[in-house]
């Protein structure tokens, strides 16, 4: 069998991981041989874990993408625009299939790139863009294509999950644990993308587009990260029976698909509450399936490179299957911003001045908007005279909690901004 010739652009952790897999392909279960024909990266001479001296070097990713000697263009450059996008477009226009791990690119331009792939009758595959080594993209797109999905949810950022897990487990600070996540290779080159929730939002948008045959529109995705979550919140929540995690979800509503990312408090017994460290997990709910959960390493060179190689393996028998499953992805459901009749319980943390009446003012503000307290916990004031308080509310409506949120911002005694996060219902 003729080898499948790869052009790899981007030689960071994942690119080098892929080269390692190419080198040990005899041990893998690929349908045929693969070889690296050309590579491209920002700097040729950089110290890497891979020996690239025998490959043709290209200064420019797009030139590699259009080269006659490659059968597959592998894009591991990253970034939603710029060289990555141009190179992918070049490959597709040249009739070459593309494998990419670039979630920002697919989340922002996936619909147009899928069109380009279809016009040129080639595959655009991006398993590694979502949840690293967890094979969720093609599971959703292909194996679960007969399931009417109602919700897809999960933990899609390993760095944030590592942060919330490790801070609680070890009592270490946010900064310390984030530095470790960077050292371990979980975090993006710019870790703001992780902690702001943006990385998870890119992935959630991609999953939602596939799961609901929706017209991908990243501008409608609501994104909140973990920057506001402190060790205090994690410990309070834990004492009250919850784990705080960054949860990404896509929900089918009458008005369209609501896709959002935010910290949530999960009851200890919730299956997602037990997914710790850098693990990712995706739960797909729908009929006639019920629910299926896929969990595994969502970050790191090895797992992500294995997902890239899995896509490459698929290209021995190219199918030019529409990238998001359905050819008519533009006429699918719209992305929309709110679940109108949503009701939920909330975890609220505030710090109040340690004086009489401060707590009463807080609970009165909640009561005035019909938000009722289920559990309440207060610790002694710290050295600055700030008394930390955590409240679990009863289930209330969006309108009630939004009005209460407004009242909280007008209280006379809070020391800093309150943290208010949704509590996930038991699974
Ligand atoms: N930075 C990502 C994460 C890994 O922490 O999950 C790649 O998507």
Entry summary:
The protein is α/β, with parallel strands linked by helices and 427 residues long. It is built from 13 helices and 19 strands.
Write the layout of secondary structure elements.
Blueprint: E1 4-9, H1 13-23, E2 34-40, E3 56-58, H2 61-65, E4 72-75, H3 83-93, E5 98-100, H4 103-119, E6 124-125, H5 137-143, E7 148-155, H6 158-170, H7 174-183, H8 192-195, H9 198-211, E8 214-215, E9 222-223, H10 231-239, E10 242-253, E11 256-267, E12 279-287, E13 290-297, H11 301-314, E14 333-336, E15 343-353, H12 358-368, E16 373-378, E17 386-393, E18 396-397, H13 398-409, E19 419-423
Parallel strand pairs: 1-2, 1-4, 2-3, 4-5, 5-6, 8-14, 9-11, 11-14, 11-19
Antiparallel strand pairs: 7-10, 7-12, 10-11, 12-13, 15-17, 15-18, 15-19, 16-17
Helix pairs in contact: 1-11, 3-4, 4-9, 6-7, 12-13
The chain binds L-homoserine.
CATH architecture level-2 label of the largest domain: 2-Layer Sandwich
Tally of DSSP β-strands: 19
> What's the shape?
elongated
Helix content: 25-40%
Q: What would you note in describing this structure?
A:
- The structure is a single chain.
- By secondary structure, the chain is of the alpha/beta class.
- It folds into three domains: 4-129, NAD(P)-binding Rossmann-like Domain (Rossmann fold, 3-Layer(aba) Sandwich); 136-296, 2-Layer Sandwich (Dihydrodipicolinate Reductase, domain 2); 343-423, Alpha-Beta Plaits.
- Helices cover 32% and strands 27% of the residues.
- It has helices spanning 13-23, 61-65, 83-93, 103-119, 137-143, 158-170, 174-183, 192-195, 198-211, 231-239, 301-314, 358-368, 398-409; strands at 4-9, 34-40, 56-58, 72-75, 98-100, 124-125, 148-155, 214-215, 222-223, 242-253, 256-267, 279-287, 290-297, 333-336, 343-353, 373-378, 386-393, 396-397, 419-423.
- Helix 3 runs parallel beside helix 4 (103-119) and helix 12 packs antiparallel against helix 13 (398-409).
- The longest helix is centred in the N-terminal third of the chain and has 17 residues, at 103-119.
- The chain is elongated.
- The chain starts with a strand and ends with a strand.
- Bound molecules: L-homoserine (HSE).
- L-homoserine is lined by residues 132, 157-159, 186-188, 194, 199, 298-299.
